[in-house]
Amino acid sequence: MFKQLDAKTFVAGQIAPEDLAKAKQAGVTLVVNNRPDHEDAGQPTSDEIEAAARAAGLDYRHVPIDRGMGPNHVEAMREAMHAAGDGKLLVFCRSGMRSTLAWAVACREEGVPKAELEERARNAGFSLGAVDHLL
User: Fold this and answer.
1) What number of other Cβ atoms are within 10 A of residue 86's Cβ?
2) CA 12, CA 67: separation in Å to the nearest integer?
3) What is the pLDDT of residue 1?
4) Which among 102, 83, 88, 85 is positioned nearest to 34, based on CA atoms?
5) Per-residue pLDDT tens for 19-43?
6) Which residues contact 101 (CB under 8 A, 6 or more apart)?
7) DSSP per position, 91-115
8) Rounded to whole angstroms, how far apart are CA atoms 20 and 48?
9) What strands, in cross-sheet order, belong to the sheet with 88-92?
10) CB–CB of 19/77 below 8 Å?
């Protein structure tokens, strides 16, 4: 369910509140939700995911990416990467794609080589083509 992007970062498609216990067991300390509420019928709301995250002892941030990724989304991802500290980060959206793209651009701004990011994304089943110009 969780795909590893790097030593500290997992990505996933839509998660359910009951998935947060598994995230905790995997070493996750911070969850970032990149989905806007009500994007799809029946998806758990940010409040529901946050309550489950807090109940599992995890920090939580809601950074919805709904009309394309902007500099504020990248900065929020960079902040989350640092805020996770020694723990791991779980980022999710509908399929994992938006979260992976935001992670890649944030990592590139941190100095991670483009080729490394492309390989890590590819290994997780994603293409960074949509943000190639930002890498």
Assistant:
1) 7
2) 20
3) 84
4) 102
5) 999 999 999 999 999 999 999 999 9
6) 69, 126, 128, 130, 131
7) EE-SSSHHHHHHHHHHHHHTT--HH
8) 11
9) 3-6, 9-12, 88-92, 28-33, 59-62
10) no
Q: Which residue has the tokens 């992976």?
A: 100
Domains of the chain: 3-134 (3.90.190.10)
- Dig out the tokens for 101 from the structure: 């793209």
**Angle at the Cα of 112 from the Cα atoms of 128 and 120, rounded to 5 degrees:** 45
Report which of 106, 86, 75 is spatially closest to residue 11, judged by C-alpha positions.
Answer: 106
Supply the pLDDT for residue 11.
Answer: 98
**Digit-coded pLDDT (tens) for 79-124:** 999 999 999 999 999 999 999 999 999 999 999 999 999 999 999 9
